Amino acid sequence: MAPPKYARKMKVFTRIGPLRAFLDEQKFSGKSIGLVPTMGALHSGHTSLVQASRANGDFTVCSLFVNPAQFNDPADLAKYPRDLAADERLLSSAGCQALFAPDVAEMYRQSSQTRFDFGQLDKVLEGKFRPGHFSGVALVVSKLFNIFHPHRAYFGHKDYQQFKIISMINQDLNFDIELHCLPTIREPDGLAMSSRNVRLNPDERQHASSLFRNLTSAREALLKGMSWQAVREKAEKNLQSSGMIRLEYLELADKDTLQTDKLDNLGNGILLIAAIVGAVRLIDNLPIK
Amino acid sequence: MAPPKYARKMKVFTRIGPLRAFLDEQKFSGKSIGLVPTMGALHSGHTSLVQASRANGDFTVCSLFVNPAQFNDPADLAKYPRDLAADERLLSSAGCQALFAPDVAEMYRQSSQTRFDFGQLDKVLEGKFRPGHFSGVALVVSKLFNIFHPHRAYFGHKDYQQFKIISMINQDLNFDIELHCLPTIREPDGLAMSSRNVRLNPDERQHASSLFRNLTSAREALLKGMSWQAVREKAEKNLQSSGMIRLEYLELADKDTLQTDKLDNLGNGILLIAAIVGAVRLIDNLPIK
Q1: What's the complex ipTM?
Q2: Which of A28, A76, B100, B199 sees the fewest Cβ atoms within 10 Å?
Q3: Do B116 and A116 touch (CB under 8 A)?
Q4: How far apart, in whole angstroms, are the C-alpha atoms of residue A27 and residue B27?
Q5: How far is A19 from chain B (nearest CA, A)?
């Protein structure tokens, strides 16, 4: 039986030093490096990023690290799904050429004191509900950017605010990496793919699709001219009617600044939602245009 | 007349793109890169860093950029001495092989929102008297590290707390550059060389040497067993007797943490001082051992 298309090619590293030496070899031979940072528990959203990197001609490398610094809730960290063997198989067959899967001690050699602040951008939406989250994201992404020195890096649109934060450090700290934000991959009923979805029971899973359904209805109503206040009231009522969903926020924000108080042009808006379904916190978003 | 030893070799860049391309060529040809970041108005302290880098066999590059983000006092920024032509001559003859001298627009393409916080380390000493200073330092050094990707970087011991901050981002963000902290270069009377010294009038210049004189006396007294409280009182009285010097702080700190409240072992201590002489703010320090 023939091995999967890419299966023999993926090298796995757990230490920074050997990974850097290997990447230097690739760069010296003229290859561009494409990085797909992940926290494992991989799904089609992740493999779409790997495929995009391969399609751009990059030597494609993934990181797999559940970053404690970005979990404000220890229970969420403890319950975060992990299955390294399955992840390795999925990445390998998606075309990933090298995987970096360090342990916490390799990534945090001493307790880190460095914290980031991003002005207004990390005070709203996720930043408001997950204090410290984006500082932890910025820290680990800075680490990964410095470890890989990639030419391009690939992220999913589902974590839209995260992408804005990463774009900010990329500019402000002059990483100057070409960042790609790729479309959210969805289940047939519209639910955004997420590592956390596996923690939903069948009943919760069914209700979870109402997040995206209400985003699309809200967009439609806004485009028809309904006021944001009326749209929000209706969506909030819909979402909470079953009693299965506890809404954290539903906002219409400027897609560049993520501020909710000054959207002059609806076309520049994005709807963002966070809700707890059963015991699982889910997010999603939908640009107006 | 023969040109100075190195004069013809120094390339000067004002843009990031061409500099990166040039540095990549050096790296691809197997050279290690040694970076000496400066704010210009150069003196023997700076040239000693260039010489150390050359002695290590590095291809030696300097940056010259007066970084607005690290000046908490706009008047200090406005008065900061600038003489690019003289700086170029000095660096060239000291052995610098390439100089990066960008303008503010090249380094800050859009207004930066990213701020850093370093826990206790940036709340004491300089951090206490210059709010925002170390966030600005960390931002520009992160930029420079990402622009140059050097193997080694060289800093002076006079800015000791700055070196600790840079060591922290180097570890926490995994720049993993080999950092060198080189001895403070002094005038014959002990005054630490500083770009700001040229702003002292002759009378102030004479009094400025009492900073180092009092640091050495204080160290001697501590090593003889005098209490820190008594040593500090005496030094403060000495320093302020002329009426020319306004002391901001004189502290005995742990040389690793820079905390002043828990120094178990005098040998692990460092004396640090900041004072305003005339209109010029000066700093200095002296390790106990």
Answers
A1: 0.94
A2: A28
A3: yes
A4: 11
A5: 13
How far does CA B136 lie from the centroid of its chain? 13
What φ, ψ does residue B52 adopt, rounded to 5°? Answer: -65, -40
Domains of chain B plus CATH, in order, are 7-182 (3.40.50.620), 195-287 (3.30.1300.10)
HSE-up of residue A170 (Cα within 13 Å, Cβ side): 20
What's the pLDDT tens digit per position in A191-233?
999 999 999 999 999 999 999 999 999 999 999 999 999 999 9
B7, containing H or E segment: none
List the beta bridge partners of residue A246: A276
SS (H, E, C) chain A: CCCCCCCCCCEEECCHHHHHHHHHHHHHCCCCEEEEEECCCCCHHHHHHHHHHHHCCCEEEEEECCCHHHCCCHHHHHHCCCCHHHHHHHHHHHCCCEEECCCHHHHCCCCCCCEEECCCCCCCCHHHHCCCHHHHHHHHHHHHHHHHCCCEEEEEHHHHHHHHHHHHHHHHCCCCCEEEEECCCECCCCCECCHHHHHCCHHHHHHHCHHHHHHHHHHHHHHCCCCHHHHHHHHHHHHHCCCCEEEEEEEEEECCCCCCCCCCCHHHEEEEEEEEECCEEEEEEEECC
Q: Tell me the nearest-neighbour CA distance from B111 into chain A, angstroms.
A: 8
How far is the C-alpha of A96 from the C-alpha of A58, rounded, in Å?
10
Question: What residues of B are labeled active site?
Answer: 46
CB nearest B173 (choices: A114, A121, A149)? A114
Is the Cβ of B171 closer than 8 Å to some Cβ of chain A?
A: yes
Pairing of strands A115-117, A269-277: unpaired
Measure CA B242 to chain center: 28
Model confidence over A48-70: pLDDT tens digits?
A: 999 999 999 999 999 999 999 99
Radius of gyration of chain A (CA): 20
For chains A and B, count residue pairs whose Cβ atoms are closer than 8 Å: 77
For residue B137, list chain A residues with Cβ-Cβ distance below 8 A. none
